[in-house]
Amino acid sequence: MSLPAPGWTAKDVIAHLRSIGTEENRAGMARFGINTTTALGIGNADLRPLARKLKRNHERALALWDSGIREARLMAAFTGEPKRITIQECRRWAGDFDSWEIVDTVSDLFVDTPFWRQLVAEFAADEREFVRRTAFAMLAWAAVHLKKEPDATFQSYLPLVEAHCSDERNFVRKAVNWALRQIGRRSLALHAPALALAHRLATSTDKTARWIGKDAVRELSHAKTHERLAARKA
Question: How many CB atoms lie within 10 A of CB 29?
């Protein structure tokens, strides 16, 4: 098969993925808690360059997702078109989530959609572990990537973080913690309210909230965090 190109179909991409996957890589993924049920054994170091060569294509991304293959779904996230994917398609993808890795990768695509805030609200209210994780993974990515979004948007999400800080499920609590830390690292204006929330959670009687708070306090109070924020302002 020729080198990857924008004209490749989902079938072409999947055939290429099958040709480069290895059992050794697949075994290694399992050690990081990655769901390898449908994995071919290809790391992101190989998938991302492939995605850059393929370029974005909405229809192909949908077909890649529907294959159910781990690597194909990651490629769907890397090459999907956030301005063309519909909210119904986002909901459908979220219903298929079965791995923190897929959640975190697709969340980066979802935050570039025009309806990302609606998705955050819906997904946070959803009781499914990986769907709720999506809401907070999206907040974490949005705090990093949406440079033009006003800080007030992220400050308005701190009550949502607090509302779900007692969800003890591993993949949720880690995402809630991630969102809080990224909001606090976004700007000096957000650092103070995020750190105040972290301190409040750190003294909670709920062990999950307490873990989230203490971990966030540790990072947001670190000298390097203050240095980065000061340099960003300068």
Answer: 18
